[in-house]
Amino acid sequence: MRVEVSLLDVAVFFVIALSLAYGVRKGAPFAIAVVPALVLYAVLVQFLPLQENPWLGTVLAVILGGGAATLAQLVPLPRLSNTAEGVIGGAGGALWGLFLAVSIWVSFPAQYKASTGSLQYPSDRIPDLIAQSIEGSGFAQPLFNWVIKNPAVQRIFPPNLQ
To answer: Keyword set for this entry (predicted)?
Structure first.
């Protein structure tokens, strides 16, 4: 099975790598911070005007991740070995990076096509270069379809429907 990688995928993989590196650097407190940040995101995303500003969900995720990691450093936890801190923090960073990745991949606009009665992802109202990058991605369309088919997931990653 061959998966194509587009410029969008490269950018998203970079975000995952940064999150992983940040988690390894910050250690176990970052992994602990991921859980409340994810819960807070799931609550706050319900109140954002995502139809007007679809990028707000991703911005909120970045802010909550960084903020929770900063606050978690203030909690006095016993320090583990450097290896254990790196592994635990890396796991938290990988989880947060994957969360950001899905948020980015599904945040682009889709539109309802009355002629076919279906959703078109990406929308034809976005610039061609971005649309080609989304269409060339081996991950964006399957993740968007997964989000659309799961109402519980839609609450966490609301699709940008136009």
So the answer is: Membrane, Transmembrane, Transmembrane helix
